[in-house]
Amino acid sequence: MNTSVNQQEPLSERAPRELAVLSARCAAGEAEVATAYFESPKRSPELDAVWLEKQAGRELESTFTLLRPILDHVGRDMGGTDQFWVDNIPDGIDRHWLEENLEKIRQEINHGNHCVDIFEEITGKPADIKEIIRKYNRWSPDPDAPNNTEWCKLADLFREQEARPEPWAKLITSEGLLEGGSCGLFYSASLLKGNKVDDWISRAFKVVLDDEQGHGPANLFAVNKYIKTDEDLEAAKEMLHARALQRLHMRNEQFSFLLEPARLEAIMNGDVDLTVVRDIWGDTPYRYVTGGES
After folding, report:
1. CB–CB of 256/16 below 8 Å?
2. The pTM is what?
3. Matching CATH number, 11-286, of 3.30.70, 1.20.120, 1.20.910, 2.60.40
4. pLDDT tens-digit series, residues 80-121
């Protein structure tokens, strides 16, 4: 997990770079996993339906998860018939917070709808949204669903990490540096072309990539807000590495196990070309990986 280059440089420079390197390994790894599938002769419409259904479950569940705090903050009784609904709006609601969270919900439902629309095109039948979310949500996925072992292991890790009390843990939990897997899958899918379904996937995941670049990688700008000591940095790196590695195992399962587990370990230990991450993240966040060099 070594990411250090110069222990003498200021923590304020070292922390963003070292966390960026680990996040970039995850991004490049997810892209490698997805690309291996997309280029494999084993790829089929049936397997496309599998990975799209799993992705839809995550995106749609996120939609409903994000709705919960809005309901809690705005009030569940605004639609009551006993009084004019405006009277039920709570005092002091933060309109900027509301706008930000409604935009996140719009993005997540849009991502999920893209996945479901393509899934329905491939399978030729309507999707059962509730069942998809039940099987493939982030927190309690169905352990009896086919090829869901790594997905369930990741959910266990999510629940464990979300309970961490340290302020720096916010950099790594559900809306942290690895949100969207640091965008590697979305980038790889956005490059597809050549037939109706691949062109559709490409258009959809270009939208997802554009949205998610403003989420996970954007957290690099906040690293120094949370990392105050060397001990903070080392603990954050350990937590980030564990999450990233399990994400790669989950993605490999999602895309039919085309990479060996040893390869996933090697990626997170640094055996991967990170230059692709410039294309995945964009120039500005990628500069953290190189320590500010172009």
Report:
1. no
2. 0.90
3. 1.20.910
4. 555 556 666 777 778 898 898 899 999 999 999 999 999 999
In order, the DSSP letters of 39-102 are TSTT--HHHHHHHHHHHHHHHHHHHHHHHHHHHHHH-TTTT-SSS-GGGGSPTT--HHHHHHHH
Pick from 118, 149, 119: which is nearest to 131 by CA?
119
Sequence-distant (≥ 6) Cβ neighbours of residue 60 within 8 angstroms: 108, 109, 112, 116, 129, 132, 133
User: Where are the strands (E) in 149-217, listed by range?
Assistant: none
Question: Cβ–Cβ contacts within 10 Å for residue 97, how many?
Answer: 12
C-alpha–C-alpha distance, residues 62 and 69, integer Å: 12
Q: Give residue 71's pLDDT.
A: 79
pLDDT band of 133, cuts 50, 70, 90: very high
Helix (H, G, I), strand (E, B) or coil at 253: helix
* Angle, alpha carbons 169-174-179 (nearest 5°): 110
